[in-house]
Design brief:
Elements: H1 3-23, H2 30-37, H3 41-45, H4 51-73, H5 80-96, H6 103-113, H7 121-142, H8 151-171, H9 176-189
Length: about 200
């Protein structure tokens, strides 16, 4: 794919993201994306076959950008505890963001499509985050920052708590204090002293 095609594809994905944020997943049509991009229908079909394919690519792009922001925030001398706190704070920002979020669209997409395990981007992201947190906890245990007997189980639990908070943020409007309380609980369960 030439540079112009790469840029066009990226433009389509960035524009489609805005449409998905505004309408969710279920209500978006290829026509909506064509109109938002101000391109021909054929121009869109050169790059993508359907809204599901576009949405999957939007989610991949979103995940890569989030990973970049997180990675860029980690200092060279950061401890395992520093990195975990930073990760949890980034999650908090995402949880409390009311506008410009794909959360509703993501859930609509997965409730409607039920992709196969190998194609489930959300599951891949979840599993990847669990692995990263597990390695982080193991490093913290090794250097005495954390106490944990089951690093894998704790990492999974942290991700399930965050996923539950994500749903709660969309359905019952959780507060910053609610998220802070859960973060403190997570850190204390690892033996980290935290002031409330």
């Amino acid at each position: 794919m030439g540079e112009k095609s790469v840029q066009k594809r990226k433009f389509i994905l960035e524009t489609a993201r805005k449409v998905f944020v505004e309408k969710g997943f279920k209500k978006v049509t290829m026509k909506d994306i064509v109109e938002a991009c101000e391109i021909s229908r054929g121009g869109l079909y050169l790059y993508f076959d359907n809204t599901s394919q576009i949405f999957m690519e939007v989610m991949k792009l979103e995940s890569e950008e989030a990973d970049d922001v997180f990675s860029d925030s980690i200092t060279e001398d950061a401890t395992a505890a520093d990195i975990l706190v930073l990760f949890l704070q980034e999650q908090k920002k995402e949880l409390l963001r009311k506008k410009n979020t794909l959360t509703q669209a993501v859930y609509e997409f997965y409730f409607e499509n039920q992709p196969a395990k190998k194609d489930n981007v959300l599951k891949k992201q979840f599993d990847s985050a669990v692995k990263i947190i597990e390695k982080l906890i193991e490093a913290g245990v090794e250097n005495g920052e954390f106490y944990c007997e089951d690093c894998a189980g704790t990492a999974r639990n942290i991700m399930f708590v965050l996923e539950g908070l994500k749903i709660s943020a969309q359905t019952i409007n959780i507060t910053s204090d609610t998220v802070d309380r859960e973060i403190v609980y997570i850190l204390r369960s690892l033996g980290v002293e935290v002031e409330e």
